[in-house]
Structures are given as structure tokens and as C-alpha cells.
Amino acid sequence: MNEGEKKPDLDAPVAGHEEGDPHAPEPMDEDLPELDDEALAALDELDMRDLLRSALAPPPGAVAPDLLRGVQRKLRRRSRGKFYGDGWSTATSPRSTYLFTSVLMLALIAFVFLVLIPWGSGSLP
Amino acid sequence: MASEEEIEALFVARLIARDEGAFNELVVTYQRRVFALIYRMLGHRDGAEDLAQEVFVHVFKGLEQFRGESKLSTWIYKIAVNLCKNRMKYLRSRYAGQPIDVHVMAERSPFSSAKGVSVGTLSQPDELVEGMQVEVVVKRAIAQLSPEFREVLVLRDVEDLSYEEIVAITGVAEGTVKSRLHRARAQLRTLVEEAMSEKRKTGK
After folding, report:
1. pTM, full prediction
2. CB-CB: which of B18, B34, B116 is closest to A50?
């Protein structure tokens, strides 16, 4: 490149838009980078999603209902007791809870029995 | 270690053997997602709970027909969407002829006026009311879409499902899904713009 030829300064401010000039016109839309149709469509899609999600979000504080009981009841009624007919299948606690309670009660009864009936004293008839 | 597919296959085998404990697990696992989907499809809570229970009853009854070609969740979604569409068609025919809330206006306000406004992003009471109104407008606009359009819009834009999953749920070709989605978005945009411009004109 020859010395006399003026090189365009890419970092130079736009004419009439120098820093500190309060009267400088606002940059026109044409000065901004253009988005192609695909990019605009993608932006629109994102906005649409946000809008849809906020509009269709459950109300604040709303809790999804517990459907299990209702489903069990419907199945029991419609199968005429074939499914979910007994207490075990509709129990809300795990079986281990019932097993543990049963064992505990058996142990308690055995303890009371041993305490109240003094085998060794020979007081039994 | 068993893969996810193997675990699901074992679980499905228990379900097909009518293991009530396994079915309880299934209901507990999917109840939130199914209820949310139905709530979004119907647009209101009334009847959503009952319909969600119906979905699980249909799942229980149709377990033998599940061939494992899709994921269990996709199959459950398919049942939920079909029941929703039936319910929406029934409600439409029952309430046909009643006036709609969103009127057609010649002049439209830009869709951008509704963008980014949601209850969650607002703090001032006025803005909060405005945000709620926008959400009401969008809800009403969604309610005016046909069940087929609402279905793809909810599945793709709200539930974030892949096109493959939507194809499996709706049973239509991928091209049709994309075309419906495009038309649904365009229709929704038009309805929202019309309603927003109506609101501006009336100053409400």
C-alpha cells in the first residue's frame, strides 16, 4: 500500500458522533448489525416460550394434588374389588413400618407376660 | 450395572404382572408431570385432577398393549394428550356459540409489547397487574387455539419435548408437527397482538 493513500480507520467514531458531543444524532437502525430472518425467528421463538411458560405456570403456591388415593379408588370400584381390594395395596406407609410395629407389639406382650407370670416362684396352681 | 432401558423393562414387567406396588410407584413418579400437562392443555384446574386420575386408570387398563417401542413416559403422555383432546373437543361442542373474549381488531399493537412481561419479573404493583393481564391474555389466546395446535405448542414450547417424542405422542409425521407448531405460534401471536391492542384502546 502506498504511503499517500489514506487508510480507513475502523475504530474512528461515526461522523458527527464524536465522544462528548451532546448534539450528535442517535445512531440509525441501519448502523446496527442486521439479524437475518432465522435469527429473528429464533428470538421470537424464545420470547414465545417465555410468555407461554409464564402464562401456563400453575398459580403461585399451587401444589399438584396427590392422585394415588383417587386412582386406587377408581380401579377398585371399576374392577369390582379385583385390584386394590385389600388394605395392604392401598396402604400409604411401606410394609416395613407395619412389620416393625407388629414385632414391637409382640415383644411388648411377651415382656408383660414374663413379668406378670412368675414361673420360678411356683405360685401357679 | 443395569442400563436405564433394562430398569424400565423390569419395571414394566412388574406392571404387566399387575404388581400393585409397582403401579403405586408409577403414579407417584408421574403424577406431577401428568397433572401439569393436563393443567396446561385444559388451561384451568377444574377437572384437571379428575382427568389426571383417568389417565392412570387408562394406563393400568392398557398396560398389556405397551410394547416398549417408546419410553414409558412418552406412552403415558400419549394417553394424557388423547384424553385432553377428547375433553377439549367435548367442552368446545358443549360451549359452542358462546362469545369469545378476544376481539378481532384492525389495528394491532406489536407482539413485542407482551414480550418479557411476566408476574415473576415484575415488582411494582402496576406492573404486576399489567403482567397478570398479559398472562390472562395469553391464556385466553391459547384457549382459542384448536386442540391440535395447543397440543404441539404445549408439548414443544412448554414441556420441552423433542420432535421425536412429539411424533410418538401425537402419531403424526414430523413435518406435520413442525408445520402445526409454526401455524400455532403465528395464530397465538396474532391473537395476543389483537388482545393487547384492544386493551390499549380501551385503556384497561
Report:
1. 0.65
2. B116
